[in-house]
Batch of 4 targets.
Target 1
Amino acid sequence: MPQRALVLERAWLALVFVGFGAVAQTFFWGIVGPATMDRLGIGASEFAGAVGLATLAAAILYLALGPLVARLPAERALAVGLLAAGLALVAAPLAPTVAAFTLAFVVLRLGARHVLSHAVEMRMSEERERLGGFGAQLVAFGYPVSILVVAPALVAAAAILSPGDLLAVAGAATLACGCIALVRAAPQKAAAAAAAAIAPIRASFGAILAEPRFALLTLGYAVPFAVDTVALLFHTRLAPTIGSVPLLTLYALGQVTGGVVAHWAARRIGPAWLVLAQAPALALGAAALWIAGEAAAPVFFALLGLAIAVSNYAGVASWQATFGHEFLRTALVLRGVLAMAASAVAAALAGRWFDLDGGADALAAMTLALVALVAACGVAIPRLGPRRDPSARGSERPSERTVA
């Protein structure tokens, strides 16, 4: 691939993954959410319930639609994800009821989060040799970079445009990008390898659900994920005088730092102990928020970002060390669905607390209580020995410390 074409390909993937992937992220709707609540005449609990239900529904739908998406060439799947997200963004501000908004949000999450992420990962896999380490860097740092770039731009645009116009502009830009992806996909042929990569997912559900380590890893991941969803969805109400940009900037920098820390820690203590490593950051952040209230919100968001980065790394590294690459995608899909279910419940409860003007204290108390679960999982996981491969071929996987 010529150097200019390589630069353009990297820029295209970064634009899609970092820029347009942000429209389905929780921080995006944490910024535009208050205006949506006012337009629909609903409280925080109803809004959080709609977002949580739509997120869970999209994850469950993707279990069925994933094999169909995998049969598409990567660029065509990109076009499908972008066009679906663009239509949902245009429809969201026009939704007359909460049910209609929830339906639009299901399409948005499905297109911009699941289909788009899968397509970008497949594209990076197809071009691994030519893109080099760019793909891994994009996956590792794409989300915090998205926050650092998109959040200030979104806040600045919100000062000029109404929320409905802002979503319409974002939807039009996403649709235009989807049309570009559709044109780029015209010469591509269906990729049988992509379909083969996702085909075994549903076949191995039972074996993975029967593994005790999976339940512990999922619980250890779901707790910080639920706290993260609540904090980002209601960050404008947690610290109204501080504003979105400082809080989200510290959160993103915490994620970058957490990724580096997790990589360093995994080499020295093994990936199994990384689940326990989340607990101190969550506990310190929640304690600070409990004691100092809004003044400690920057500290809480920085430590939350660090904990989330460690959580993401811990889930992938520990499961890969347990079963290897063969069942990693299946485990992550199942874990994502269960974690989203937990975050949907937590968001609905937190929305009720915010309606009662007890959001910051309630979030701190909830986090402190749930840290005990994270710590318990983190202590139990390393004590479980290696198990046999779920394919029942009789081969033993090496221990985590050896694989790590």
Note: Confidence is low (pLDDT under 50) at residues 190-203, 388-404.
Target 2
Amino acid sequence: MTVHQPEAPVSPPPRWVSWLIALTPIFPPLYLAAFATLGHLRRLPLTARRVLFFFAATQLIAALFTPQPLLSVGLAAGRTLFILAMIATGIYLRDSRYLRPLLWGQLIIFATAWIYTLSTQGWAGIQARLGHPYYYVVGLGLVAVVALWLIVFWQRGSLYWRIPAGILAASTFIAAGSRGPLLALVVGSGVAGIFSLSRRSALVIGASLITLILLITTGPLNSFEPAQRLLSEQTTGREYVWKDAIAAWHNSPVGGIGPFQGGPYLTYLFKDGCQLTPTLTRNDIPCPPLLQKTYGFWLVAHNNLLHWLMETGIIGTAGLVALYGFALIVAIRQRNHFNLAVLFGFSAIGIVDVVIFVPDVHFAELWWIVVGLQMLDSENFTDHILNDNGRVA
């Protein structure tokens, strides 16, 4: 395999764009600015445009076969347009280096989580798992994993800030005590190490993961409850959610039940009523009246594929799989370590959680932006597939 390099240096975006990216983890609605980049979809190579068209078309066609087609078409159009805006943002940025400002906003989120949990619940709150006012525990852990990747892969970054930033991100990851992000960290880092990093860098990542496991099992973290939870084998009821999702899909196998309409079908989750993050729940903060009426929109099937199958049926899932597979294959060809880590790490956690469902607090949007980065690079990939004589290389 060869690594394809861009023909010319990629110019950085304006400084205000970097500030916008940095502030997005703190105020997620800033992602709406991505709609201004939709015109960049025209820059895609022909093959990528065809894959993207197939994805978008299947989402809309699937909506026609749902129990409420008019509502589903509107919701599918809105979500598909949002996804296209995220992909277009990746095309606009052109290089994952320009996603680095995310780290500064993420570090503020981590500091906020520690300050809020300690000030409202003390050390008992940390032992019950570190939380944040609007980041769910799993999301907080996954954002910490993304931050670790940004820190480790930031070439020429000074150790004076990388070490304390890495300690804060790693501490947040451990205190969140979520096993899905651990799966993402191991798989994403492993794939990045295999395909894009030097042998030395791969050994460093491997040694770090082994050290973490030893600290949890035999070291000072042996009595820290969130750390012990990382190695637990319990499914915490996910198997019941998966059964509900499969049953919902059986009700409408061709087009699914429609975007954002799975809540009442996920009875294991829906019966508990509206709940905010565990941290806010422990502080006796109830759901606002508006969220109590719409909370079913945000319930997920705890599996990427099952959730898409439940909402969009066979038709919509076929489009997702085509786009998903295309991005993964191109990522392997391009060997960008951050892109590989995000795409494969999120795929791994996608077995037990839904991390590509948009809109979200920013990690799902990040996944679609990285897909956009890969689709822009797909021209080199398709050039490699066909040689000058039009035969398969």
Note: The two ends are 12 Å apart (CA to CA).
Target 3
Amino acid sequence: MSLSLNAFNTHPILNLPNITTLDFVGSKVVRVEAGGADFVRLRTLSFSMEASHPLLGKVILRMPDSPSPYDNASTLRIAGPDTFTETWVQPMTLITERVGDLEGLNLKTIEPARASATITQYPPPPQGTGPDGAPTGGAFLNAQAPIGFAVGGIGVAAVQLRWQGVNQGQI
């Protein structure tokens, strides 16, 4: 199942001037797998989002190159008669084209990004764009915490993304 993704007004926390917000747009492909009596697992098969910034160039969020124990940690649970709770758990790699005149960054999440929502339909309806340019449709998954990224295996956040969440809709 293919889903479009939007994460607007994401605030990167870097020790650099003139970094305001990033607007990520992208997609993910998930496969529904068996779970338990009241839930199914959502295995992410592919995931990539891009933003652009004058100082950083192209900024990419994507799945890590190697498999992760979190690959099928996302779930869709029955929450009530006509509602579900979707929880997205996603390890990520953050890549920047550059940092000013310097070489870009290639960082990995310390802990997977997490977002969730109570929804009435899965997959969510397609996304669109309103007259003011704002996204319409889809379902908004609320961020559960900022996303911390580190260099290599070092567990200290080098970069943090403060995000409200991600809007997703069926493609």
Note: The CA atoms of residues 3 and 92 lie 17 Å apart.
Target 4
Amino acid sequence: MDYIYYVQKQAEYYRKMIVPIVPTFNIHSEFVFGLSQEEWVEEFKRFHTVMKSIYEDVCNDPISYGLPLYEVEKYHTHSKEARESLASVWRIGNILYCLAMSGEIVSGDLYVNTQKFDNMISEMKVKNKAYIINSLMKQGFYFSNWDKNKFSKGCDQFVVSYPEASRFLAMLKGYCTRASYSLKGTKGYVNTHFYILNYRVMEEKTNTLPDLELTDFENLIGEENTKFFRAFLQYIKKYDYSIGIEEDIIYKATFLNHKGKETGDYFRLTDYHYPQDGLLKLRLKLNNIEKYIHNCQWPEAIKESLLSATPCRHCKEECVMRLSFAFDGVEKDACRCEGDVFSFFSPKIEHLHYYQELFDLERECLIK
């Protein structure tokens, strides 16, 4: 779907990135808040439904959440406005976090200290809280002493309820308590694991978070892309290579060599940085392409990708990152400074052996 605003695109990505829940998993005893393991898991499944609904609501009606509406067509992805809009989706999770951490569970409800809540909101730099609270009420939350835009004057405490499920807020309190061990300093957000509901974080009480897994990436990129991804991953194992998911970038799978070091090759699901998002991209680091490109025959899709490599801007007379080669009668000056040089979008499984050939040829040059 084509979205107008950056905030819509970011909400869509968070919705896609929510880690699929397994039937059972362990929760550290400090985070259960009176629930059995089974009850906690059941409420966490409900939380998945709630957050997916919220993210979808932001996609459809971002105005109601009071989030900054900067247009994709008008602002560059690295502009101040775009960054503000993208980061603003955190506000929703941060409101829930502040509610849980400034209140106590009493008979299934959350009794929140108003001053503590306001202080936390200020510390986490959450703007337009009234819009978000009003939107949460549409999602099934109830707030006492709330009058459309603010809490009643002189209100020292208010109560949050979730009438549909009396155990839901106890689970939320436990989940946010776990998140408090991994706060990102003063940056105004908790770790990405918590915005995408990674159930694996609940097993341990520690500042160290579990690694994201390849299945998380596969769930994001879809069935057809996963076929190519798995086939290529299986192939590079002959070099003792593996794939790792970066802690906060679930939509990027990075190649690791036998020493666990990043090679510069990776898979990525394209996002708002690209003219067309939602595509699987294979990026290959072909620093020696001039040594073998003239001996190869490739289909048009791969030829087009090679010839569309990011050109060198000649920022220096003798740039060590410049990569010159000739292919199909075309002289190219590519730039290795650019992350998109030699990127292949939506690689097809029927072309797998061509990509494997490129990968092999480059590795052979490195060995020599």
Note: The two ends are 47 Å apart (CA to CA).
